[in-house]
Amino acid sequence: MAELLLVEDDGAIRAALMRALSTRGHAVRSAVTGLAGLQAAVDTPPDLVVLDLGLPDLDGSEMLKMLRAVSRVPVIVATARDDEQMIVRALDAGADDYVIKPFSAEHLDARIRAVLRRTGNNGSDAPIVLGDLVVDPRSREARLAGRPLELARKEFDLLAYLANRPGQVVTRRELLTEVWQLPYGGADKTVDVHLSWLRRKLGETASAPRFLHTVRGVGVKLVAPDP
Amino acid sequence: MRRQLSILVAATTSVVVVAFLLPLALLVRTFAADRALRAATQEAHSLAPIVATVEAPALADAVDRVNRSGSRRITVFLSDGTTVGAPARRDATVELAARGRSFSTAVPNGRLVLMPVQAARDGNAIIRIFVSNDVLSRGVLQAWLILGGLGVTLLAAAVAVADRVARALVRPLTATAAVATRLAEGDLSARVAPDGPPEVRSVGVALNRLADRIADLLTAEREAVADLSHRLRTPVTALRLDSEGLRDPEEAGRLGADVDILERMVDQIIREARRPVREGVRAACDATAVVAERVGFWRVLAEDQGRRVALTLPGGPCLVRLTAEDLAAALDALLGNVFAHTPEGIGFRVRLTRSNGSCRLLVGDDGPGFPPAASPARRGESGTGSTGLGLDIARRAAQAAGGRMRLGSGSRGGAEVELILPPPG
Lengths: 227, 425
What we know:
The complex is a heterodimer.
Chain A: E1 3-7, H1 11-23, E2 27-31, H2 34-43, E3 48-52, H3 60-70, E4 75-79, H4 84-92, E5 97-100, H5 105-120, E6 128-130, E7 133-136, E8 141-144, E9 147-148, H6 153-163, E10 170-171, H7 172-178, H8 190-201, E11 212-215, E12 219-222
Parallel strand pairs in A: 1-2, 1-3, 3-4, 4-5
Antiparallel strand pairs in A: 6-7, 7-8, 8-9, 10-12, 11-12
Chain B: H1 2-53, H2 56-69, E1 73-77, E2 83-85, H3 92-98, E3 103-107, E4 110-118, E5 124-132, H4 133-136, H5 140-184, H6 198-244, H7 249-273, H8 275-279, E6 285-286, H9 287-304, E7 309-312, E8 319-320, H10 324-341, E9 348-355, E10 358-365, H11 389-400, E11 404-409, E12 415-421
Parallel strand pairs in B: 7-9
Antiparallel strand pairs in B: 1-2, 1-5, 3-4, 4-5, 6-8, 9-10, 10-12, 11-12
Helix pairs in contact in B: 1-5, 5-6, 6-7, 9-10, 10-11
C-alpha cells in the first residue's frame, strides 16, 4: 500500500514490525542506525518514515532535523519515553505524529494511514460537520450551533476521534489505546468519565442523547442528530 | 544572636567599668578630704606666729577676719582660759592638744585640726580649726558625676560597636539560613553568595555544594528513569508485536491480554520510579483542593449512572506529603474501582477529615463490599480483567506519603478504603 522506511535499532521490534506491516500490505525497508536511515531516506525516498527516537548513534530529534533539511517525507516518531518535553521536541523538529511504546502494529498502521491521508490530501484535515456540530482538527476547535465548546485536551481528542468515524461504534478499549495510548485493563473508567463530560458539554444526557449514543456492551458512536 | 552579643558585651564592659571606677571614686573622696585637712593645717601654721605674738584683742580681729573669709571655723584657746574666734567648748581634745601635741580628729559633721602654740608670755595657746563635712567632700560629687558619665559613655560605645559587629556576623548567617530554607522547600536554584566571616562563608560554600549535589542526583535519577522506561518498554513492544503475529486467534487473544497486564505493570513500575523526579525535594499538596477537584470530575459520570455522591470536606486546607498529581491518581484509582465494581445506581461517599494532624481520606460505597476469602487488593482480577492495580496505586501513594491504607466495610456492608496521610514534615 505504501513504501515505508523503518529506522529501529532493536532487532526484535524491527523484525516484528516489518512482518506486521508487510502483512498489512506495506512495502517495508529498514535501517539500524540513524545515519543509515538518513542515507536510505535520501537515496530512495519512501512514502513515510517510522523513526525510533532511541537510536545508538544519533539522537532521534537531531536526526529528524537533519532529515527535514533535505526532505519533506512524513515521519512518525516511535518512542519509549513518554515525557511531554521529548514529544514536543520531536513534533517541533518536524515529526508528523508519534506513538509511544509499547504500541500494537494495528495502532501504528492506523497512524500511518492517517498521516498518509493527511499529507497526501490536505482536504482530510478539513472541519468535520455533524448537524450543528463542527469539529476542526487543525485549530483544535469544536463549535456547537456556532458557539465554541470549552473542551479539555483529552475531551477534544476523544471528540475528534469519534467525529472521524461518524456512525461507527467505537469500543472503550479502542478509545483507551488510541486516544489515551494506555493498555486496556477492563476496570478502567477513564473513558466513561470523559464521555460523561463530553456529553454534558454537548448539552445532552445519557437518557436523551443527540450526538453521543451508547451501544450497550459494545461502545459509543457519534452521529448527526435527526433534524 | 545580635541581642545576645550586645548583652554579653554590656555585661563585660560594665564589670570592667565598675572595677576601675569604684576604687577611683573612693580615692577621689579620700584625696579631697586630705586636701581640705592639709589646707586647715597650713592655716593653723600660718596663724601660729600671730597667736604667739599678738595681743588678745588684735588676735580676735585677725581670727574673725579669717573666719569670715574662709569656710573653716577657727577658735583659739588662750592660756588664760579665754577663747578667740568661733565659739567652742574647751573639751578633752583641746586639753590633749594643750599637752603639746598637734593632731586631727573626727567629730560629728566634720573634723577638727588642733595645734598647740608656744605663746611668748605664758603657757600654751591652742588653735582649733573645724572643717565641716561639706568642705571635706567639696568637689567629690562633681568628680563622681564625671566618672559616672564616663562609665556610661564607655558602656554605650562598647554596646554600639558590639551591635555593629554582631550585625556584620548575623547578616550573612541569616542569608545562608534563608537559602537553606528555600532548598528545603524544593527550590534547588537557591544559592548562597558567600559573605561574612570565614566560618559563615565556608557554611555557605558547603551548602552550595550540597545543593549542586542534590540537583545532580535528581538529574541522574531523571536520566535513569527515562532509561528504565526505554529498557522496559522496548521488549514489551516486541512482545506485543510478536503476540499479534500469532496465527491462532485464540492464542493471540490470550497472549494479548497477558501483554496488556504486563504493560500496565510496567507503566506502574515506571510511574513509581518517577516519584522522586516528580516530587523533587519536597512533595506537598492541599488534599482538600485535590479531593474537591477530583470528586467534581467524577461526579458527572456518577450522575449519568444514577449514583448518589456524598462528599465531606474539612473547613480549611489539609496538607499532605504527596504531589497533587499522585494524590489525584490515588483517588482516581479508588473512585474508578467503585465505578468498576459496583452496579450503576449504587451511591458512594468521599470523606476527608483531619485527625491528630493527619488527613484521613475515606472512599466508601454502598455495594456488596469486598468479596470474602479473596485478597481485596486483587479483587476482580480473574472476573473482569482488572489487575487490582487501583488499590495498589492508592496503597503505594499512601506509603510514599508516610501513611498507610486501611480496608474495611461500612455500616451497610459496602467496601471502604481509607488512606491515612500524615502532614508534610
